[in-house]
Amino acid sequence: MPRDLPPIIEEPEEAIEGLELEGKWDLVIFMGESPSAFSLLPAILESISASAIIAPADDYSWLPLGLERQIKSEIEYMGVGIVFPRTFCTLAPTGAPAIDKFARVFGSPRLRLETEDGAVRSVKVLRGAPCGSTRYMAERLPGTRIEEAGSRAGTLVQIYPCLASRRVDRHFGDAPIHVAGHIAQKAVERAMEE
Fold first, then answer.
1. CB 141 within 8 A of CB 188
2. pLDDT value of residue 33
3. Distances (CA, A) of 194 to 111, 112, 120, 169
4. Which one of 6, 26, 166, 185 is most buried, by most CB atoms within 10 A?
5. Domain that holds residue 25
6. Do residues 136 and 173 both lie within one domain?
7. Are 116 and 173 members of one domain?
8. CA atoms within 13 A on the CB side of 86
9. How far apart are CA 38 and CA 22, in angstroms?
10. How many distinct structural domains can be found in the chain?
11. Helices 133-140 and 146-159 sit at what angle, rounded to 10 degrees?
12. What pairs with residue 125 in β-bridges?
């Protein structure tokens, strides 16, 4: 992406000149970190051919909901499936084949846990957060007492260098990093019930 994008881009086509965007893609993963970057998505799609887009927003300031609705409307009008997971680890299948194929491997964490003598013996990641925090957590959870496993999983995800913002987000009423921690905690609790 071009550096130092202005807050409002009058001519998006000019902003993406020189990026050598071309080709046909099943899936585009767009990691914009500002409203200006996200506003370039329709122009980018006019330069390439894509079936679907995953555009995570791990910070509300990157993609206010009004801008998300506008971009989604423009892109769906182009016949392209798009999803804006908030946070990336909330990604779930949408019905768009390319997104669903990705979401089978990356997205909302799914785990298989084995326990022994009141502690976690092993953790297998069936679907992990795209940032890698699920694997990080899974490697460090064995040996944890069963009653502490969920909260420890949440803590481990929050200390991992995740993309989720640490600022309270008015969309969530909490910091996205805390949301990611709760998602990991719930994944461990579900796995222990299975």
1. yes
2. 84
3. 10, 8, 14, 33
4. 185
5. 12-84
6. yes
7. yes
8. 18
9. 18
10. 2
11. 140
12. 111
Place of tokens 């769906």: 76
Quote the pLDDT of residue 127: 97
Residue 35: per-residue pLDDT = 87
Encode pLDDT of 92-144 as tens digits.
Answer: 999 999 999 999 999 999 999 999 999 999 999 999 999 999 999 999 999 99
Q: What is the DSSP letter of 145?
A: B
Q: Return the pLDDT at 2.
A: 67
Among 105, 153, 115, smallest CA distance to 133 is for 153
Q: Point out the residues of the chain with pLDDT beneath 50.
A: none
In a domain, 48, yes or no: yes
Structure token digits, residue 41: 């998505």
100 belongs to a structural domain: no
Model-level pTM?
0.86
Give yes or no for a contact between 185 and 141, defined as CB atoms under 8 angstroms apart: no
SS3 for 69?
Answer: helix
Mind giving me the DSSP string for 169-188? Answer: BTTTTB-HHHHHHHHHHHHH
Whether 20 is covered by a domain: the verdict is: yes
What does the chain come to in residues? 194
How far are the Cα atoms of 3, 87, 172, 186 from residue 135, in angstroms, in the given order? 32, 17, 25, 15
> Is there a single domain that holds both residue 128 and residue 80?
no
